[in-house]
Design a protein that fits this description.
There is one protein chain. This protein has about 750 residues and is of the alpha/beta class. It has 2 domains: about 375 residues, TIM Barrel, CATH 3.20.20; about 350 residues, Alpha-Beta Barrel (TIM Barrel), CATH 3.20.20. The protein has 28 helices and 24 strands. The strands form 7 sheets. The protein has an 8-stranded parallel sheet. Helix 18 packs antiparallel against helix 19, helix 23 packs parallel to helix 24 and helix 27 packs across helix 28. The model has no long low-confidence stretch (mean pLDDT about 95). The chain binds glutamine (GLN) and zinc ion. The site of zinc ion has 5 residues, from loops. This is 5-methyltetrahydropteroyltriglutamate--homocysteine methyltransferase.
Amino acid sequence: MIQTSVSSFLRIGEKRELKFATEAYCRKEISENNLQDIARTLRIKHWQLQQTTGIDYIASNDFSFYDQVLDTANLFNIVPKRYRDLKLGGLDTYFAQARGYQGKNGDVKALAMKKWFNTNYHYMVPEFDSATDIRYIGRKLVDELIESRENGIKTRPVIIGPFTLLKLADYKDGRKATDFITPFVTAFTALLTELGNLNVDWFQFDEPALVKDLSLDDLALFKALYQPILAARGSVKTLLQTYFGDIRDGYETITALGFDGYGLDFVEGVQTLELVQKHGFPKNAALFAGVINGKNIWRNQYSQTLELLNKLSNITTLTISTSCSLQHVPYTTENEEKLSNQVLAHFAFAKEKLTELAELKGILTNSDTEALIKNKRLFDGTRIVRNTELLKQIANLTEADFTRTPAFSERENSQKAHFNLPILPTTTIGSFPQTREVRANRATYRKGAKTREDYDKFILEEIKKCVQYQEEIGLDVLVHGEFERNDMVEFFGENLNGYVFTQFAWVQSYGTRCVKPPIIWGDVTRHQPITTFYSKYAQSLTQKHVKGMLTGPVTILNWSFPREDISLRESAQQIALAIQEEVLDLEANGIEIIQIDEAALREKLPLRKSDWFSQYLDWAIPAFRLVHSKVKPQTQIHTHMCYAEFEDIIKAIDDMDADVISFEASRSDLSILKALKANNFQTQVGPGIYDIHSPRVPSVSEMTTTIDNILAELPLEKIWINPDCGLKTRSNAEVAESLVNLIAARQAVIDNL
Ligand code: GLN
Ligand code: ZN
């Protein structure tokens, strides 16, 4: 008989209760007991929700105060010495690793944080060094298991598996992954023994690292870890859970290892079905088929899923599951008041996905035809009317639409003559501090307590102050300051047809931070000019050039919930055409320098290197080129990227064919410069010399040194001087001092040439 499973549920809560409670605790507004009570209430609510919906296999230990990787590390005593030395209580040592600690017990920064595979979630990077002493000491997993039992719910504890943990870790003191095989085996054996004593039925190892490119060494490491662990499992059944792709590099090896169950992703794992059909599936093992998309918010199309499940009918024990943890989708559509039921009917957030699992089981076991018919009706209906004109426009795009003329070097020369900027020109990335007043202006306007006129009056006033200030301190290329924007994607989405916005569709980005991505509902077009009003005004105030400021198509797409009925390529092209109109409008209104931010371009590179060009860059780079291909030779196109780690795709970045690119560099100790040089990078570059992620004010001398280091690698005439990202999160006081220092540093370098 078919059963249902959720590989992990979300934990932040229906109304982000965990976020607010944790933040209150960290501000010392509530006690640890208060916080623990709220956490327990949430866990029980989430288990009960799954139980009442009819989920057969419910996970526990999927709760986390901050991050599941950090939880696992701490469960096994992996806590760097500098945090132990603080001598704080258990929970506070945990938060010190997650958020850093500054107080009477010491001053330490948080652990490094990195993007979790191809999601927008970030995990805390575990550190392994010579003092690491892996032992099974944490009580969290067993405590939560017992808690679920006390509440009448049978759960399957889940943990991040040792292979993924070792693959994601940072190694110090010359340590390497293989040094930790034996201690991990011992620790997991101890854990499994305890679970056996507690009569635990199933235990789940999350091993998403298996969906990446795997070397023979990787597979050897996996085997070395799991052969002894599996031998020691006793009566506990082990589920190997993979997600975010298929396990093509190790399918045969992995399925031969003898886990009791395998969780495979049939949504993002494009080759999963083929792997199962071609190589077979172990007779005695259970298949947990991830068929409900844990990452996107659209309803499942039952007819398609049933067709897929039909192909798996020879599997003896089949359980249907989510493709990954539900932590990557919002809680429920039920609280959304601004979207019509017709629209909401097409969405399935976490709670609705539980119902989908239950309905699919119903259809398969007792032919719940009603659910099937209702679902069929939803998909048979016309959800949207396609924009035929736009489709035609896209179909008619030719190579010329993606190619800017004349070639870069010719443009570079004519722009140099035209703009006549000083050497090492200075600029900023766009936003200036979003002060309390700036945010209040937006909030009151949104509440309807302010007219559009008054709202704009305030913004124009801010722009004026900002432009005057930039002139005073002597920046070369100015910006208007972005006081009209809350968020670089939402702002554009609100001005484009085809987008819908939710009120509560929050998704955890890291720790207590959540984002609320807009949803691409239909074909995207621009209904009116978006930025010209403010940019034109800013330009009217000064003889210097003011950059127009736009978000690029790839970033807009990557930070939205995308459609599933058309390809990402097509969506990117639609957005690109809309932004192209905006670029041309800015140009027609006298804006001669236009920056098109692609902050998130690097973020969505596929997990497998082999897919980078064929599945992503092949449409992402052209989408950017489409945006600016039609501007005049003299119009200078800038772009900006937040992730500095693009050494491995440098050619593709150059191929965006922008005139200038700025990027984060101050924290990555400028390692990218050598790669730029080696690749003979032609685009002019502004490696950020001021780290805006920290409240620290950089001194003149340290920035002078940074510029000198840049000049040691790259030609003088290619370099721009700027901070490494927008200034919106900083205070006016910090920015004022830092920018004055930045300009002084540039001058000091010039004086020394
Ligand atoms: N132009 C944006 C800003 O200055 C860029 C932000 C970003 O890269 N995330 O805020
Ligand atoms: Zn940035």
